[in-house]
Amino acid sequence: MRASLVTILLCLAGLTAEAQEEIVFTPQWTAQAQFAGYYVAEAKGFYREAGVKVKIQHPSATQPAMARLRSNECQATTLQLCQALEIVDDGIPLVNILQTSMNNAMVIVSAKDKDPLSQKGARVGIWSVGFGQLAICMSIKDHLDYQWVRIAQGVNLFVAGALDATLAMSYNEYYQLIQAGMQISDKAVYRFCDHGYNVQEDGVYMTREYYQTHRQQARKFAEASRKGWEWAAQHPDEALDIVMQYVDKDRIATNRTLQRLMLKEVLRLQVDRESKKREFRLRPDMVKLASRLMVDNMMLGREVTYEELIDN
Q1: Is 224 within 8 Å of 52 (Cβ atoms)?
Q2: Under a CB-based contact definition with an 8 Å cutoff, are residues 204 and 77 in contact?
Q3: Which of 29, 97, 267, 306 could crosslink 284 through cysteines, CB 3.0-4.6 Å?
Q4: What is the pLDDT of residues 179-191, one digit of tens each?
């Protein structure tokens, strides 16, 4: 009897210790509406109500999100699916605890109203921090022989005429180009989601090592984050107010109009094309598609499976 009581007390002590442990969450980029649901969850007290302590810390130029996760300076981060596959293939097991993106947001925007598929050998801007895996796969498959020009961020090189085309996210750089005064026709925009490359992007990941010892907290964090996104979808204007508080606090060079457009597009991308619902789940078929494309183009040494990315 006494032994059983001791066991119960030890278990409760362990749960209490886990409940009090703080989760540091690092989105993969600086403060913006791309991460509105997490800001809402913190600001509206959803994390606190769920019984989980969460601290949101954005990455810096010298400390990207994944580097912080590797060094245990954060316990959760957002990653695009293609990024997660590369990391797992590199020997770091991850667990997807929440999937927000259900559709791919990447586009190629061409200059001079040209069809991107007609620009063989074009100089195309691609982010130096990654995110362009599908674009490289597409250019190889379609024999476009693009000359990839690495850019840190932004659209300045393209606007200045130094590039023939540039990669852009439909919720970010695409609107930056419009704000810069560019007239962009549908002909000049190649949307990957419409051409057999509809691979999910943002999801929340933890290392499997951390997740296995903090399942309860991980699930609470995921559920509260989902609640934050659902609230943002129902109250976009108030959610934007919360986003701008984070933007202003970190002195991010943006504006409310751009962030409003970003939030609207991010929320649209969260709705699955088939079910017409926000499912918040990683789709096995999209994992398989992304893994196959990346293996075929020698970006992965082996196929990374759906089962490797989920709680099992």
Answers
A1: yes
A2: yes
A3: 306
A4: 999 999 999 999 9
Rounded to whole angstroms, the Cα distance separating 103 from 272 reads 7
Q: What is the DSSP letter of 170?
A: T
- Classify the phi-psi angles of 230: left when phi > 0, otherwise alpha if psi is within -120 to 50, otherwise beta: alpha
Coil vs helix vs strand at 125? strand
Distance of CA 78 to the CA centre of its chain: 5
Angle between helices 256-269 and 215-234 (to 10 degrees): 110
- Say what the pTM is: 0.91
The pLDDT of residue 20: 57
Report the SS3 class of residue 134.
helix
Q: SS3 for 217?
A: helix
Where does residue 51 fall: left (phi above 0), alpha (psi -120 to 50 degrees), or beta otherwise?
left
pLDDT beyond 90 at 14: no
Q: What is the pLDDT of residues 45-73, one digit of tens each?
A: 999 999 999 999 999 767 788 888 888 89
More confident residue, 197 or 3: 197
Q: Which of 56, 34, 35, 37 is nearest to 46 (CA)?
A: 37
* Token pair in block for residue 252: 């991010």
Which H or E run contains 211?
Answer: helix 208-213
Q: Specify whether the backbone of 63 is left (phi greater than 0), alpha (psi in -120 to 50) or beta.
A: beta
Task: Provide the Cα torsion 294, 297, 303, 309; round to 10°.
Answer: -10
Q: In what order do the strands lie in the sheet with 106-110?
A: 147-151, 123-127, 165-169, 106-110, 189-191
Q: Write the CA distances from 246 to 37, 181, 257, integer angstroms.
A: 12, 27, 15
Q: Cβ(37)–Cβ(47) under 8 Å?
A: no
What's the whole-number average pLDDT of the chain? 92
DSSP reduced 3-state for 289? helix
Return d(Cα 169, Cα 167) in angstroms, integer: 7
